[in-house]
Amino acid sequence: MSSFLSNSSNQSKLQLATVALASAAVTAGAIYGYQQSRHGERLNRLKKSIPNPAGDAEPELQRVTRQGPVPKLDKEDEHNQALAHRAQNGDFDDELILEQLARNRVFLGDEGFAKLRNSFVVIVGCGGVGSHAATTLARSGVSKLRLIDFDQVTLSSLNRHAVATLADVGLPKVQCLQRRLIAITPWVRFDLRLQKFDGSAAPELLGAWEKDGQMPDFVIDAIDNIDSKVELLKYCYDNNLPVISSMGAGTKSDPTRIMVGDIGTSTDDGLSRATRRRLKLLGVTSGIPVVYSTEKMGEGKAALLPLPEEEFKKGDVGDLAALPDFRVRILPVLGTMPAVFGYTVANHVILKISGYPLDYIPQKARDKMYDGIQAFVQASEEKIIRAVTGGPRELCIGLKVPIQPCEVSFLVEDIYKAKSAVTGIATKLVLIRWQKPTRDILIRIGEGADEQKSSDLKLSELVCMTKEEATRHQKEVLLGEKTLEELYNAEIIERVAKRQEEIKLYEKYR
């Protein structure tokens, strides 16, 4: 009898538990259904509230320095323009925005997410790299984007541009981005600048947002012209504007080799190397983060295509470019790589603005080495001047040499690859004159206490050696009677000659 009662009790408990669970599930489903219903109602109300585009003309949604050929709007464009106009005037349910950006909000935290939503980013260059960066930033919550580019969408752009379609061919790239992105993030405000970036326009193009005076939280360099790139980075460096630069995606194919690091650490990339060299000669040796590839070129891999001979015969090569000094070659670009560069750039900007932890690749700590090499050059010049003039030691008191640590870095790291030109050894490196001077190298300006003494020294006259090699070179060539041919073989002399010619190409940028 007791067993029967016990079984009945257990069955009752099981039934009650089952009913409770079923009730909880029904309640939860009802709550979820109600929330979804309210969400759908809000979204439908918003869409229905959009005025008919055929009515009053909507105000322009962006500033364009020079208006491009705007295609006729289709129904989708009209709908997107109207929605964006409403959203940018505050008539957009903020809960919908937060839901769209929910994954970023959870990842970055409320404080970091708020910083990102209130940020202003400038993107210079809206091609393959810049378009993917702009798209990612808009999707991630950045509220203000200034897009700067002089160029138009072409058919060849479509293999790598983030949002361009056939219908956008001929449309300025900045307008193409705005046209497509308002369909995704209608609340984002755009400031479109249809012009080429150059140093003279930097204060305006990199200046404050017009309506509220907010300065850029970050500048993205996605330019593929070295002169403009260097001007942009130098301006940002001098004016303490946070900037990140994308190096060359052309001829690259391995996404696992793409890295973020300081400009002083970037390697194996032609655009990075040329930019780094120019910046060093302007005194910028570090402090600018860059996205670059460590992929090495090899047999069977894509390379820069030479300009056909028939193009040269048409006249001045510069006349063939879209703008003066711009490239006239078609660069071999795998469509996936600019996207990876652009996403990496945008990722860096998002993390930096939001304050998310991020570390650079450790930078080469060689500042003391550069100072030591500069001191060695000065001591060597003093000895040469005294030997040539036969003057006393006091003759060279206060002597200055026209070479800076940034130029030492340029010669040692970029030209001589941190190796001796004589033996290839990479320890205890110094710079020293290659040939005995045949002219008076002591320059004296002023008299008495106001006299300035300096050595007439060009970068192309210096060569990188180990300290032991330089000591022998100084004793036997610069202060002695031996010729270069007596001390070095033809291979070494030819190697140094090639390096000197390379240096001369850059000396004009000092």
UniProtKB/TrEMBL annotation:
<keyword id="KW-0812">Transmembrane</keyword>
<keyword id="KW-0547">Nucleotide-binding</keyword>
<dbReference type="GO" id="GO:0008641">
    <property type="term" value="F:ubiquitin-like modifier activating enzyme activity"/>
</dbReference>
<protein>
    <recommendedName>
        <fullName>THIF-type NAD/FAD binding fold domain-containing protein</fullName>
    </recommendedName>
</protein>
<feature type="region of interest" description="Disordered">
    <location>
        <begin position="47"/>
        <end position="66"/>
    </location>
</feature>
<dbReference type="Pfam" id="PF00899">
    <property type="entry name" value="ThiF"/>
</dbReference>
<keyword id="KW-0496">Mitochondrion</keyword>
<comment type="function">
    <text>Catalyzes the ATP-dependent dehydration of threonylcarbamoyladenosine at position 37 (t(6)A37) to form cyclic t(6)A37 (ct(6)A37) in tRNAs that read codons beginning with adenine.</text>
</comment>
<keyword id="KW-1133">Transmembrane helix</keyword>
<dbReference type="InterPro" id="IPR000594">
    <property type="entry name" value="ThiF_NAD_FAD-bd"/>
</dbReference>
<dbReference type="InterPro" id="IPR045886">
    <property type="entry name" value="ThiF/MoeB/HesA"/>
</dbReference>
<comment type="similarity">
    <text>Belongs to the HesA/MoeB/ThiF family.</text>
</comment>
<dbReference type="GO" id="GO:0061504">
    <property type="term" value="P:cyclic threonylcarbamoyladenosine biosynthetic process"/>
</dbReference>
<keyword id="KW-0472">Membrane</keyword>
<dbReference type="GO" id="GO:0005524">
    <property type="term" value="F:ATP binding"/>
</dbReference>
<dbReference type="GO" id="GO:0061503">
    <property type="term" value="F:tRNA threonylcarbamoyladenosine dehydratase"/>
</dbReference>
<feature type="domain" description="THIF-type NAD/FAD binding fold">
    <location>
        <begin position="103"/>
        <end position="360"/>
    </location>
</feature>
<keyword id="KW-0436">Ligase</keyword>
<dbReference type="InterPro" id="IPR035985">
    <property type="entry name" value="Ubiquitin-activating_enz"/>
</dbReference>
<dbReference type="GO" id="GO:0005741">
    <property type="term" value="C:mitochondrial outer membrane"/>
</dbReference>
<keyword id="KW-1000">Mitochondrion outer membrane</keyword>
<keyword id="KW-0067">ATP-binding</keyword>
